[in-house]
Amino acid sequence: MEEILPNQGAIKVKALFFGPLAEMIGHKVIELSLLSGTTVGQLAERFDLTQMLSKGLLIAINGEIGADLETILEDSSEIAFLPPVSGG
Asked: How many alpha carbons fall within 13 Å on the CB side of residue 65?
């Protein structure tokens, strides 16, 4: 984990995991302190979710589905990781 230096600043975000992702991660909600400038993609990498993006994983920031991986997270953001829905 990266060390936060005094001049870098930090933000707090809430990550939400749904369906099988919650089981895989072991939590439905995790509050995190991150370095300012952290992207959605970096957060997905932190939880080993980047490979799931090609399989239909969606990411929402503050209720807006379809977040770009290069989006820089802001303080107090809520990031939801939504697994693909299977139907029959």
From this structure: 6
**42: buried, middle or exposed (CB in 10 Å: 19+, 13-18, 0-12)?**
middle
Cα–Cα distance, 17 to 28 (Å, whole number): 5
Query: Which residues are CB-neighbours of 62 under 8 A, at least 6 positions away?
Result: 77, 78
Residue 13 β-bridge partners: 32
Q: Give the 3-state DSSP-derived string for 12-55, with helices as H, strands as E and coil as C.
A: EEEEEECCHHHHHHCCCEEEEEEECCCEHHHHHHHCCCHHHHHH
Statement: residue 25 has pLDDT above 80: yes
- Mean pLDDT, rounded, for 35-52: 94
Could you give the C-alpha distances from 38 to 15, 56, 78, 85, 87, in angstroms and in order?
Answer: 13, 23, 14, 28, 34
Q: How far apart are CA 78 and CA 3, in angstroms?
A: 22
